[in-house]
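Exam review. A common question shows you a sequence with its structure tokens and asks you to describe the fold in words. Practice with the pair below. Do the first one on your own.
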Amino acid sequence: MPPTILIADDEPGIRAWLSRLLEDAGYHVIAASTVEEAKKALAAGGPELLITDVRMGAFNGLQLVAMNPTVPAIVMTGHDDPVIEADARQLGADFILKPLDSPSLVRMVARRLHPALDDIGLAGGKIAVQLVVVDPHGPGALGPLRLQPQGEL
């Protein structure tokens, strides 16, 4: 089963867009429109990553991060506030500003879920591969080889 990501955002359009983006990237997504819904999903277990908006009604998404220190998190906001960014980083979360850039967000998700990939440089979405083909019938017997890319990590 693919990793499960919990998206907590009170904006329906953002939740739907993020859900679609991350499902297309191969993840299982749970969406919550309130802090209470997100708390229930986290209490039930399962999410390997939390993506939360900062401002969610009367609550602050940073509270979700603080209450669940073992769940990797990404905090997003539409307000460039260095204090909120510092608070998020102090809690161990990554921080990203809205509007969100799809490739950057997918790479950030991969790094948070698979830190070992980042350690060897694979979480960036591209892999350099050297292919060596040895033809037992001699050089050129197979003719030219063409490789077709099948997608990104």
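Now try the second one, then compare your answer with the model answer below.
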Amino acid sequence: MVNNDLSIYGELDDLDLEILRLLQINARLSYRKIAERLGVSPATILVRLRRLKKKGIVKGFTVEIDPFKLGYQSLAYMLLRVDPRKLRRVITRLMKEPYIVEIYEITGDYHLLIKLWARDPGDLANVIDRIRLVDGVNDTNTLYVLKINKES
């Protein structure tokens, strides 16, 4: 995710990029550990991270949850073709669906791409049926994930 082309990031230097790289690998690293690995003081890391947060480059630190360990065994992506006049209402309705974890507006033949997890194929079928019934959803295309080879 971290690109070494500094022109993209403006004022970021190699130290900033290395801090970001380490945090992408493990967001729980302490300032002390990051400082040790990069050969600088913890205060330097603190100052750099405050600046990266202020610029909006670092949005926050999150916990990554394994859906499989919580009993969610079925992952799917859905492409939705939506009545453009009802797009905002459709998105608002989809945001209330607990199985949907991501919603993207996209270009092309479809308007939305959603990512959803369900407990099993039957549960997934029920969620898909609910989504198809949302007023303004005209067409869907569901892509069932057989195997995850890489996630970041």
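Model answer, second protein: Residues 19 and 34 are 7 Å apart (CA to CA). The chain has a mean pLDDT of 91. Full marks require stating both points clearly.
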